[in-house]
């Protein structure tokens, strides 16, 4: 059996690097990491304190979504502290979002899309809504 320890990184395709970097750095607050000198454009970010990473890869192909935001589409999720503070921040940044404070999943969720229409779920502990 494979002994998986944790997710190391997630890679997402983006068409234009600078708007994507600005979204992940300035809106989501991720810290950009040094990236090896690959022969294609991209950026790496730290995700939380446990060493996980997000890798952005510039790709001109047709693999990116064209439609609207739907929670059943492929996405990745980040646990956040402060559900209402997160919504306030997204509003200050002018980022569109879909807030779901009491979904069937059992924990509050907020869905956002990056400039290339990749979906990110931001969720928090349900106890945060009670306090």
TrEMBL record:
* VOC domain mapped to chain residues: 6-125
Pfam families named in the record: Glyoxalase
InterPro entries in UniProt: Glyas_Bleomycin-R_OHBP_Dase, Glyas_Fos-R_dOase_dom, Glyoxalase_1_CS, GlyoxalaseI/FosfomycinResist, VOC_core
- Where are the bilayer-spanning segments? none
Q: Which GO terms describe its molecular function?
A: dioxygenase activity; lactoylglutathione lyase activity; metal ion binding
Q: List, alphabetically, the SUPFAM superfamilies matched.
A: Glyoxalase/Bleomycin resistance protein/Dihydroxybiphenyl dioxygenase (SSF54593)
UniProt keywords (A-Z) are:
Dioxygenase, Metal-binding, Oxidoreductase
Q: Which domain of life is it from?
A: Bacteria
Answer yes or no on keyword Oxidoreductase.
yes
Presence of the UniProt keyword Manganese in the record: no
Q: What is this protein called?
A: Glyoxalase/bleomycin resistance protein/dioxygenase
């Amino acid at each position: 059996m494979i002994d998986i320890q944790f997710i190391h990184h997630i890679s997402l395709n983006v068409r234009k690097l600078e708007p994507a970097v600005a979204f992940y750095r300035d809106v989501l607050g991720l810290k950009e990491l040094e990236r090896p000198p690959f022969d294609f454009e991209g950026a790496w970010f730290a995700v939380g304190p446990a060493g996980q990473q997000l890798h952005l890869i510039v790709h001109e192909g047709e693999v990116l979504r064209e439609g609207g935001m739907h929670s059943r589409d492929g996405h990745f999720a980040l646990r956040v502290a402060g559900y209402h503070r997160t919504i306030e921040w997204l509003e200050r940044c002018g980022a569109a979002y879909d807030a779901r404070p009491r979904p069937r999943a059992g924990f509050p969720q907020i869905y956002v899309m990056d400039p290339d229409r990749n979906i990110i779920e931001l969720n928090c502990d349900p106890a945060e809504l009670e306090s």
